[in-house]
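Homework help board

Subject: predicted structure for assignment chain

Our instructor gave us this sequence and asked us to write out the predicted structure in token form, then describe one feature. I got the tokens but I'm not sure how to describe them. Can anyone check?
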Amino acid sequence: MFRSLHPDIFIGTASDRYAGWIGSIYPKEKYQQRIERRPKVIKGKTYSEAVLPIDCLEDYFGHFSILEIDYTFYRLLTDEQGKPTPSFFLLKKYGELMKDQDFLFLKVPQIITARKIHQGPGYLENPSYLNPHIFTEHFYKPALHLLGPRIKGFVFEQEYHRQAERLPESELAESLDHFFKALPPDNRYHLELRTESYWQSPVFQVLERYGIGQVLSHWTWLPPLEKQLIRAGGRFYNSGNQAVIRLMTPLGMRYEEAYANAFPFDKIVAGMFQPRMIEETARLMHLAVKQGIQMNIIINNRSGGSAPLIARRVAEEFIKIKEK
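My token output:
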């Protein structure tokens, strides 16, 4: 259903190995006896996540055409000595299981995109922030070596900045300009700025100059998706004619609350799921198609309970609008 929706529509999820998806995209008879558990601690509360073996990727791509890899956000692919990290070897396994028509979005490590990194009891200034050498040598080149054209996009996600931490938009734009100017030319770069006050002309000019896509993100402290595109002048800036929508959390709901409500990710959760998110996503999909833009939709469990079931709602809404 998802692969055949439209040639310019690509739907996928953020991560892939959730046992809560058994019965929706993973066959029960194949995986019910192969579930492993791993602890996940959020705000002092421990959850026992049920996960599937990595070979479930074959069944995943039987439904979806794209997948966002999240674990690359937490570690580079090679260390300071150029030796492969565990993330390198895990990404290598993914590449070995993929077919030519399967594609990945890679989250760029936070050590490159975050101004501050969590260390110990608080956050410290990140000395590697927007370092083009680290990105190129320790992430971009190893990723190309492993996956080549199967990489559909790189997502640069910057954390939310409280008002006291915010830079003048001109200063941020200058930093982004120096960074993207120094990167290897590539039309697969997409920037997600989670601080709305940065969405100003100087920043959008940098996106346009280097063909960097603006990620439209359905996330806690951001406005609705269509308003985000309006703030960008109604334009898709990516030079590869790609656009990205990430459905992360309900508007107004913090990460820890969204995770707790969605867990164990096996159903759409009443009272958490926001229908407007689906309606706006579908309308933006049609807008992109009309403009000859490939639209990539990445769905997180935390946006409403179960990413595959939310994907079905998105697809159904897209079809309903098409039939009107």
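Reply (TA_rk): Your tokens look well-formed. For the description, you could write something like this. The domain at 9-17+53-323 is CATH 3.20.20.410 (TIM Barrel). That's the kind of observation they're looking for.
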